[in-house]
Design goal:
This protein is mainly beta. It contains four helices and 25 strands. Strands 1, 3, 4, 5, 6, 15, 16 and 25 form an eight-stranded antiparallel sheet that branches. The protein has a five-stranded mixed sheet with strand order 2-24-23-20-21, with no helix packed on it.
């Protein structure tokens, strides 16, 4: 008998301004390391093919702050120090799941979005505890995420899980707290470079451009801007004849982290999590622009493509002469004002590093791990990698954490701290912190000891 800890370390930032040599996370994603805390609320349940385990929520701690998540990838394991990134559903284990919208409904109508007493009233049961509420919610989520029906000996837990499963309907994926897209743009001097589109659930975000003198951040009408809203389009206006250069756009605001955002490991095949609690957090995003008076002006962006099993690398040319890109050794010529997409195949669960090079020492590397498919019911949690922790990260305690479903000092019934810190990064996309651990899986393998 052994204990395999399912750990989440989360947060998200996209990295990589347009310079001659940058590293970025594909799909506007990034990573941040955090430390696993104790189980906050949960119960022991029977998990098909795995024996007894604990279903519920666990704190992810970063600088003493916590948020909660549930597991959406039951049969994979994970380990201390794994880096996680926020990601869209289409770039996660939910990519091909027809019931993913039902998982979102469950999150919005269960614990910790609803208190245990409020959930009890909705489900028509009496005396629901936080432990029962968390276990019931996780059981219902696994029903749709992993097509697995864990069972509890607690009749109240079972009743609430059944109510959630029976009433779940498909609802839309939550938008990022804040994102800028695309991550990089390019053009000629004298042009308005862009558009760069703002996506946010906040009413307004502050925007700032760091650029050479005379270069401005403007809206579609050419007016200088210092703030923007959801779906606003921004441009970098460069004076005619300006020497070759770069600028960086930064957007920031305080907003609630959306419940239902997925988090996956940057490396290896560690299990994927989904955010359960929300709180006002500071978020920021960055994008970059480059220009030149003549010649090719390269740019590159990347998005994970779960449908085709790889990473779509888009190379573009904002100049007046063609340029030839090398995408992981594959040559592609980009005409002036055009863009080309190169699919780089990546095996499920593999870590990738994709480098794009071009003229004038242009070089950009995209890194991440492709995680699009959950392991089917009956699978064995994979052995989890233990990547080295960056020097800026807090080192997690060695060994698996110990479940303590009724630990004191847990999150409030709203499910989150209101002072969760933000880990910022260079690049284009969102910066958010969230996470936790959902499953401590005690597996029984007969007389085998692991």
């Amino acid at each position: 008998m052994r204990l395999g800890a399912a750990l989440l370390a989360a947060g998200a930032f996209a990295a990589g301004a347009l310079t001659t040599a940058t590293t970025a996370a594909a799909d506007q994603n990034g990573s941040a390391v955090a430390v696993l805390g104790n189980v906050l609320h949960g119960q022991s349940v029977d998990i098909p093919h795995e024996g007894r385990g604990t279903a519920g929520t666990v704190a992810l701690k970063e600088d003493g702050q916590s948020l909660e998540v549930y597991c959406i990838d039951l049969y994979h394991g994970t380990s201390s120090g794994v880096k996680y990134q926020e990601t869209g559903w289409d770039q996660s284990v939910l990519s091909n799941n027809p019931d993913r919208g039902k998982i979102q409904w469950i999150l919005e109508h269960s614990y910790p979005v609803l208190s245990a007493s409020a959930l009890a009233q909705e489900a028509g049961v009496n005396g629901l505890t936080q432990d029962e509420a968390a276990a019931a919610t996780q059981i219902a989520i696994w029903h749709f995420s992993d097509k697995t029906d864990a069972t509890s000996k607690d009749k109240t837990t079972t009743a609430v899980a059944s109510w959630l499963e029976q009433n779940a309907t498909n609802v839309s994926e939550p938008a990022p707290s804040l994102a800028l897209s695309p991550a990089s743009v390019a053009g000629q001097s004298g042009d308005k470079l862009g558009p760069i589109t703002v996506t946010t659930n906040a009413k307004s975000v502050d925007v700032k451009l760091t650029a050479p003198s005379g270069v401005q951040l403007v809206d579609g009408n050419g007016q200088a801007v210092t703030n923007a809203g959801n779906n606003d389009k921004l441009y970098v206006k460069v004076p005619a004849g300006a020497d070759a250069g770069t600028a960086q756009l930064t957007a920031s605001t305080t907003t609630n982290l959306p419940v239902g955002r997925a988090f996956k490991a940057l490396k290896g095949n560690s299990q994927t999590m989904i955010l359960a609690g929300t709180a006002p957090v500071q978020v920021s995003a960055s994008a970059s622009a480059s220009w030149a008076p003549k010649g090719p002006v390269p740019a590159a962006n990347a998005t994970e493509d779960c449908k085709q099993g790889g990473v779509d690398v888009v190379v573009s040319n904002g100049g007046d002469q063609p340029w030839t890109a090398q995408v992981n050794g594959q040559s592609v010529t980009v005409a002036p004002g055009a863009s080309e997409t190169v699919l780089v195949p990546v095996k499920e669960g593999d870590t990738y590093s994709i480098t794009v090079t071009g003229p004038n020492d242009f070089s950009k590397t995209f890194t991440g791990a492709l995680k699009c498919q959950p392991t089917g019911g009956g699978g064995t949690p994979s052995a989890s990698p233990t990547p080295s922790v960056s020097a800026t990260a807090t080192s997690p305690a060695s060994g698996p954490a110990t479940p303590s479903p009724s630990a004191s000092g847990g999150l409030a019934e709203t499910g989150a701290s209101s002072t969760t810190p933000v880990i910022a990064g260079v690049g284009a996309a969102l910066v958010v912190i969230g996470g936790g651990v959902v499953l401590f899986l005690r597996k029984q393998r007969g007389a085998h000891a692991g």
